[in-house]
Amino acid sequence: MVKFQRLTKAVKMYGADYVYNDIEDFYTILPYLAPKLKGDWTIYILGKSIAEVNKCLEDGFIPEYLDVTIFLDVNTLQSLLLKYPSLEISDISDWDKFMRLIEEFPVLFEKKAMNELYKRVGPKTDDLEKALDSLKGLEYISYKDITSRFLSVNKVYARQVLRLFLLQDMRYAWKLYSTLEEDIGIDIAFYSMRRYMYMLFEEKLNYLSNKSYRDKLVQKVDAYTINYAYYLFTQATSPKQLLSILWAIEKRKMLEC
After folding, report:
1. DSSP line for the chain
2. Among the four 8, 58, 63, 172, which has the fewest Cβ within 10 Å?
3. Where are the domains of the chain?
């Protein structure tokens, strides 16, 4: 399912499995997004041009188990509606819908509990409404009430794992990698890490050229390590090589000898 939402400064992209900067980035991962064991993938995409949005709508091959929201600026939305006048456009994010449910809920929430409920149950409104119904018998809803009633969803992200390897922080690196692979599979893990590695390589170039950059990791990881990891990912011929790539990054200094 594909939805469209107006992009504003107030929009909160909270609770998604993946957030992509453009539709083409999403397409690189799409072939490897198999159905979850439970629930759908929640995907947020920043749509940058009417051409790529048109392609998405005309191709029409987004699987049913993907809940995709494309965020567009006002001008792009207006152009889109001229061609597809029946499209439904939302001005309200999933988080805003949740906040409206909280405002109407008869029991007070501890703020930390409210955030934790959305993290564990959201972002779908139906699921959140069911969760809130189960809490109506309480006089006050605390963080402990949420953690004792709803399963924890401790997501591990590909960039999080790769950062540990680049920093040579091996205390939890392999454990988190195992969790990541079990959750999303080695193919998606590989392509997600490679995409992050491309971005990190560009950030390091900006850092060394005294240009603006956003990822502070480039201050902590030396250029050789970033170049080495970038080379490994770009030369890989199969996602199945990911374990070998991470092992080589971990043992980089030993392999130099």
Report:
1. -EEEEE--TT----S-SEEESSHHHHHHHGGG-PPPSSS-EEEEEE---HHHHHHHHHH----TTEEEEEEE-HHHHHHHHHH-TT--EESS-HHHHHHHHHHH-SSEE-HHHHHHHHHHH-S-HHHHHHHHHTTTT-SEE-HHHHHHHS-------HHHHHHHHHTT--SSHHHHHHHHHHHHHHHHHHHHHHHHHHHHHHHHHHHHTT-----THHHHS-HHHHHHHHHHHHH-S-GGGHHHHHHHHHTHHHHH-
2. 58
3. 2-90, 94-149, 158-256
